[in-house]
Amino acid sequence: MELRHLRHFVALAEEEHFGRAAERVFVVQQALSSSIRNLEDEVGVALVTRTTRRVQLTPAGEEFLVGARQTLALAAQTVERSRRAARGEVGRLTVGFVSGLAFGGLPEVVRRFREVFPAVSVDLRELTAQEQEAALRGGLIDVGLLLLPVRDPALASLPLWRQPLVAALPAEHPLAAREELEIGDLRGEPFVFFPRHLRATYFDQVMRWCAGAGFTPGVVQEAIEIPTLLSLVAAGVGVFLPIEFFSRLALPGVVYRPVRGAPVVEIVAAWPRAGQARPTVQAFLEVAQGVLSPSAAAEP
């Protein structure tokens, strides 16, 4: 049974006339008549009664009309859903992100994506960069938000956001009175920081920056989470060099100051390089770049 037969039948039932129904579905009357006969042969019962003036449905035809309309409506919905899926407008998307983005960047991107694509279910997973690369390879997440570099050659990446490092200081620290610092101003200060194995690239970038100013930071306390590190700063344990968007996490006792010549950290989206990006991933990339880099056009 073909959908065109159902369309022909519905048109005939509603027009009650072969000529008008044929015009409505853009076929000649003979073709419409043949289509209805084929349909009746397939169903095995008469669906219409034919008179010289009009066409009427049999009781079987009345019942068949209900199902025919439902089938055509479902077919149209299925086609539209497929088209929306091809545009990335429906489906499911699993996004990995490094913890810091929860304080800036990620909320804005996810909020905008849900506004534009409300039919896409978004699942968020907080993972380190290394965990994201493994999850992307294993198909556990669809797209990841992490810091450069992306080491796995099997992953494609798209730059989204560039953020400088800043100094997080105890509010009562003498340097807090300045509007801008030099990295050399922190020589001799106790530092709090991540363990290197968790943020190797970030850690090494800070160490190189300080080495360029002639000193090695003395890390007196390590912690895994950003709020913990900032709480240590507030307690006067040490200073910290976070990415600028962490300054959105306002904690009593902590002030943030720009540092002249601070290195810039680049946040990127990553996804499996093989094949074309899934439509939902493509849609997410376009939204993310529009939110985080309004002047750039997405080219995943």
Automatic annotation (TrEMBL):
GO terms for molecular function: DNA binding; DNA-binding transcription factor activity. Pfam families: HTH_1, LysR_substrate. GO terms for cellular component: protein-DNA complex. Keywords: DNA-binding, Transcription, Transcription regulation. Residues 1-58 form the HTH lysR-type domain. It comes from the Bacteria. Gene3D superfamilies: Periplasmic binding protein-like II, Winged helix-like DNA-binding domain superfamily/Winged helix DNA-binding domain. Belongs to the LysR transcriptional regulatory family. This is Transcriptional regulator, LysR family. It comes from Deinococcus reticulitermitis.
